[in-house]
Amino acid sequence: MEKFTKLVSRAIPLPIENVDTDQIIPARFLKATSKAGFGENLFRDWRFHKDGSSKEDFILNNSNYSGKILVAGENFGCGSSREHAAWALEDYGFKVIISSYFADIFRGNALNNGILPIKIEKEKLTLLLQHLDQNPNAEIEVDLEHQTLSLAEIDLKETFEIDPYKKMCLINGYDDIDFLLSKKEAIAQFEMQ
Amino acid sequence: MKKTLFDKVWDAHVVDTVPNGPQILYIDKHLIHEVTSPQAFAELEQRGIPLARPDRTVATADHNVPTINQHLTIKDALSRKQVAMLTENCERHGVTLYGLGHPYQGIVHVMAPELGITQPGMTMVCGDSHTSTHGAFGTIAFGIGTSQVAQVFASQCLLLNKPKKMRITVNGNLGPNVLPKDVILYIIAQLGTNSGTGHFVEYAGEVFENMSMEGRMTVCNMSIEMGARGGMIAPDQTTFDYVKGREFAPQGEDWNKKLAYWKTLPTDPGAEFDTEYEFDAADIAPMITYGTNPGMGIKITEHIPELDDTSFNKSLSYMGLKKGQSLLDHPINYVFIGSCTNSRIEDFRMVASHIKGKKKAPNVTALIVPGSQQVAKQIKEEGLEEIFENAGFEIRQSGCSACLGMNEDKIPAGEYCVSTSNRNFEGRQGPGARTFLTSPLVAAATAVEGKVVDVSQIEMV
Ligand code: SF4
Fold first, then answer.
1. Domain ranges, residue B100
2. One domain, residues B134 and B168
3. For position A26, which CATH number holds?
4. Each residue of B347-389: pLDDT tens digit?
5. Is residue B260 part of a domain?
6. Which pTM does this prediction carry?
7. ipTM for the complex?
8. Which residues in A lie closer than 8 A to residue B406 (C-beta atoms)?
9. Separation of B412 CA from ligand 1 center, angstroms?
10. DSSP alpha helix (H) spans, B212-360
């Protein structure tokens, strides 16, 4: 996993609620047996027509917007547990997702792939979405060590929560397998009970 | 301290606690399937780690398998490769596989309970969000991502923060033709799709006490649809009777020992929950969803609400429906009866008892997809097959099928499908497909009429 400490980037607003993982990556693209290349089909049916041509009104196809941060409506990542959704977002280039609510499984999957999900209050999210809509060049600063998210032009400075263990993993690029393997003895003892 | 059912099972599986951090939870059973496991096996191999407990791992092929001619080579090259890879991985790592053609093959959440793999008081995981189904047995069961599949492979454990506890109590008697599916669709419509986030739910009260194991599985199955990690129901005599005698159920002295333990699991009187809800069974009626998330549901006799926000409007426009509209008499060309929510024998008995002697409407394509080979066998043995065939329903072989439209079983763009599955997301059943989620009874009645009908008026035989 890549290390994560700080990020300054433009952001893409997606003011839709309950974005489920079937939208992020539809089931028919889950046939691959490796983790690579899912970004191509990220938001497939919102991004492309059936014939493969781009849907011009979808935000990812609007060249005014770009960046490594996705700002999305409430309850992002609900539905299927498919980690392919996190792989697709990561492969497309997103490092941070901001929403007022994340579905549990998705949040875990994101963290396990070096993507930082940041939860902020709904009013702040609305403000952020509106500002980004009008100001596609606005840059958001995310500081994981201090757990802050800021957008200077609208005086937004939020602190966000993250599990200290997960924070340590992201900063150092560790993952849970390394940790669990270090606990082998305790696990073996538990199995003896 | 007074403990809940969830506390008791969770606490019994904690190996260690990281100071200020998550807990290490031991996993009793790990179910795997072809779609979310290949990258996890690859991870093990890259790191050169062996699979910790192949004996606690069980595999089946369900998500991406054809439901016709399962004895032939799979036509789609990518699907074929994915299923073949599962077989190879299982062989290499010594994992029991109920693959295509095996008499135990089936949707992972139908297969494990019917074989007695699922037992009260266990911790179970699977790379599939509807793992919550197994909670019907008083089991902590939840869906995980592929990185976590790899963690369980490597250590038989997961690193987790203990979720909060919610109890949903429903007392009273359900009205005629109100099925377990209606109960859970009603709860989700009342509470919304993210009400359960961060929680494990316990379903309590007379309605669940009086429910069959199949019904309890339907309810627990959809816990994830309100955002909860899982749902549970306290094990009782109904549970014990269901488990006893199944292939992998404990036997003899072992059974007596386990049974004594299982009886200690129900929530202590006075134990506390972080969140509680209560409903009256009399308020629940046959349900149908009209939108693109499972929380967008109404009683079948109600009208679509008149809300105004972007997501709501987007959803109705995808569905081709209007605010204030009733769904009764809405023409339907596709009916899907299957999925891990409603593809057990009891569901098909219900469907058969309604359509016996009737015919499907000429405009309707009606698919019956049994949850497992064992269910398919029972359908035959009980003479239901004949009833379905005479009514013009198509009987397929077991798998996830049109629940997620990963194989050929897709609903065409723009078409409406009354479906007994669990998700009505945009494109879930095929690009552009529009899904109405209902109970198996509403689905059967719709297939006969060719339009949505109010089943509370139907006399059951
Ligand atoms: S039937 Fe549907 S919901 Fe159930 S496991 Fe299969 S794809 Fe998932």
1. 5-160+237-250
2. no
3. 3.20.19.10
4. 999 999 999 999 999 999 999 999 999 999 999 999 999 999 9
5. no
6. 0.95
7. 0.93
8. 27-28, 30-31
9. 19
10. 213-221, 237-243, 252-262, 310-319, 345-355
